[in-house]
Write a structure and sequence with these properties.
It contains one helix and two strands. It has one helix spanning 19-54; strands at 2-6, 9-13. A two-stranded antiparallel sheet has the order 1-2. β1 (2-6) and β2 (9-13) form a beta hairpin. The longest helix is centred in the middle third of the chain and has 36 residues, at 19-54.
Length: 62
């Protein structure tokens, strides 16, 4: 908010909101992260049997 004095007295002006573009970018970033997480899941699933055969307990749960 910006306070200023005009010929009619004191006025308050609110800064123009750019929330629409910020929320759009946030949504875009969340979607990108979700795609990356899904890709990582596919890689883990694809290599799960190989990792279990290596018998390195810290690499898998179980």
């Amino acid at each position: 908010m910006t306070f200023y004095k005009s010929k009619d007295g004191y006025l308050v002006r609110q800064k123009a909101s750019s929330r629409v573009s910020k929320s759009y970018r946030t949504r875009e970033n969340m979607q990108e992260f979700a795609r990356a997480a899904l890709g990582a899941k596919y890689i883990r699933t694809a290599f799960a049997s190989i990792i279990k055969e290596m018998k390195i307990p810290s690499w898998y749960a179980g």
